[in-house]
């Protein structure tokens, strides 16, 4: 293959294993020769010579929730661009399982991406000391992290509800141990207090349809609007409110902290946050690749989540008065 490309064996090896060390024209010539000859680098041999396997460990809390699918797709596409491969594991929001999976993947992968990890700060710092690590939707000091700014997006949704006149607003929160959920609760409570309003927190709750149904029956009577941790809780709330004869948004407004396509097709379509999950997954792989190749930058990258306003939010109805038709 080196002869076909007109380069030395050492140059051909570097072009395939360390493309950053050769000129672009040389890299392309070697890659073209390899493709023409059907040559595929031996991963085991590459690991022996470079100390890298080309494998990336990706730990997600669940695959049952389609929220994580765009993130995995974005990570996969970014991995392909760096000629890496993903090893995907599911932690089910369990700290012990998460730690065991991380230990196992660390034996094979060049580094780890942990999505919404529930382990302690100390455990994550220690893992970073032993293996390149990027966190997603979790921030621990100066550890590398990629965060979708759902806190900022939810605060913008709260401002939207406040502008409409809502003053008693429920936040149906997510699973216990969720760093993102803790940040959201604190930000919403502080913002509502500044505006002379009140946040009623329900939870922590599993982020499921059934939990949303149960939450719909536990909403305080004064509440005129609800913000939910995720789409599944929102769909459960929408169903539970409908069964109870409470109309959205005539009797109560409803909004979600993420925007599965289902929410745009409900009756009414639900106000939600557009979270850039594909970009989050891709950027996490890029950050990990930087670490593996020696660029040990400790930085948190924040990607904005934008509100998408739909028909499920409206000004609260005055007691005893019908809502004016819009």
Strand order of the largest sheet: 2-1-3-4-5-11
Largest sheet: 6 strands, parallel
Number of strands: 12
What is the overall shape?
Answer: elongated
- Classify the oligomer: single chain
Structural class: alpha/beta
Our count of helices gives 12
Question: What does the secondary structure layout of this molecule look like, with pairings?
Answer:
Elements: H1 2-5, H2 9-17, H3 24-37, H4 43-50, E1 55-60, H5 69-81, E2 85-90, H6 95-106, E3 111-115, H7 121-130, E4 133-136, E5 145-149, H8 150-164, E6 168-172, H9 179-194, E7 198-202, H10 209-216, E8 225-228, H11 231-243, E9 253-256, E10 271-274, H12 277-292, E11 300-304, E12 306-308
Describe the structure in your own words.
The protein is α/β, with parallel strands linked by helices and 326 residues long. The chain contains 12 helices and 12 strands. It has helices at 2-5, 9-17, 24-37, 43-50, 69-81, 95-106, 121-130, 150-164, 179-194, 209-216, 231-243, 277-292; strands spanning 55-60, 85-90, 111-115, 133-136, 145-149, 168-172, 198-202, 225-228, 253-256, 271-274, 300-304, 306-308. A 6-stranded parallel β-sheet has the order 2-1-3-4-5-11, sandwiched between helices. A 6-stranded mixed β-sheet has the order 7-6-8-9-10-12, sandwiched between helices. Helix 2 packs across helix 3 and helix 5 packs parallel to helix 12. The chain is elongated. Residues 320-326 have low confidence and may be disordered.
């Amino acid at each position: 293959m080196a002869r076909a490309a007109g380069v030395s064996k050492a140059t051909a090896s570097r072009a395939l294993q360390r493309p950053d060390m050769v000129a672009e024209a040389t890299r392309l010539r070697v890659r073209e020769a390899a493709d023409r000859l059907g040559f595929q680098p031996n991963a085991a041999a590459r690991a022996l010579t470079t100390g890298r396997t080309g494998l990336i460990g990706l730990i997600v809390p669940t695959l049952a929730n389609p929220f994580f699918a765009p993130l995995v797709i974005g990570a996969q596409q970014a991995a392909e661009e760096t000629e890496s491969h993903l090893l995907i594991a599911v932690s089910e929001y369990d700290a012990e399982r998460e730690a065991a999976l991380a230990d196992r993947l660390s034996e094979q992968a060049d580094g780890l991406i942990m999505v919404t990890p529930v382990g302690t700060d100390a455990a994550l710092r220690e893992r970073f000391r032993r293996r390149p690590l990027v966190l997603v939707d979790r921030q621990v000091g100066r550890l590398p992290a990629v965060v979708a700014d759902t806190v900022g997006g939810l605060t913008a949704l709260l401002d939207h509800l406040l502008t409409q006149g809502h003053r008693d607003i429920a936040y149906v929160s997510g699973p216990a141990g969720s760093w993102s959920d803790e940040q959201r609760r604190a930000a919403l409570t502080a913002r509502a207090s500044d505006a002379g309003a009140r946040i009623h927190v329900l939870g922590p709750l599993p982020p499921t349809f059934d939990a949303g149904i149960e939450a719909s029956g536990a909403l305080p009577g004064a509440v005129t609007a609800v913000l939910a941790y995720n789409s599944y809780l929102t769909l459960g709330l929408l169903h539970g409110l409908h069964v109870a004869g409470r109309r959205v948004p005539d009797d109560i407004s409803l909004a979600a902290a993420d925007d599965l396509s289902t929410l745009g097709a409900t009756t009414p379509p639900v106000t939600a946050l557009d979270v850039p999950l594909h970009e989050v997954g891709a950027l996490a792989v890029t950050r990990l690749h930087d670490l593996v190749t020696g660029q040990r930058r400790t930085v948190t990258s924040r990607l904005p989540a934008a509100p998408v306003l739909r028909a499920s939010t409206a000004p609260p109805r005055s007691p005893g008065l019908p809502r004016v038709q819009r």
